[in-house]
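ESCALATION

Customer reports they have been waiting on this structure for their group meeting. Please prioritize. Original submission:
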Amino acid sequence: MNRETTSGDEVRAEKRRIRREILAVRDALTEEQQRRASCLITERLLGHQWFYRSESLLCYVSYGSELDTWELIREALRLGKAVYVPRVLAGHRMDFFRIGSLEELRPGFHGIPEPPESGEIYAGEETVAEAALMLMPGVAYDPYGNRLGYGGGYYDRYLSAHPWFRTYSIAVGHSCQLVERLPAEETDCRPYQVILV
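Update from on-call: job pushed to the front of the queue and completed.
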């Protein structure tokens, strides 16, 4: 086995270890801690200039112990913004489909609420990137802006295919998800901003 492969294997093993540890800490948060953090992040994002000026919101649908995004999605819809949420497709792809209400969502990939595949897929281009905001989840973050996802690489591949979104992307999480330093690979795409509460 060459050194490069070993190094890559070590990085992936370290990522798996961090995922297990941080998810255990996040899952142990009390209901009150979860509720308070979700209220804080909703407040922060509603007051964020990128949210204010966006015409389209590409937003993850919270699941499990992730920061709750349901209220933010409701408010974006109420304000008349075009809201797109992710759906996992064949071939390890992910696309964002437009929804008109949260009632359209059904359990999908790993039980995560997903939009119907019949919906309109977000097709924004670089020329309208400023009018859109992407909000993504993560498992862990470090002070250098690195993000550790769940291991599927869906957001990394999406950002790689739509590089202009890196300028208008925010990853969010609980403050307990901050680690000293994350191992990073060439395929990892950093969000432009990370907000932890």
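Sent to customer with the following note: Confidence is low (pLDDT under 50) at residues 1-5.
Escalation resolved.
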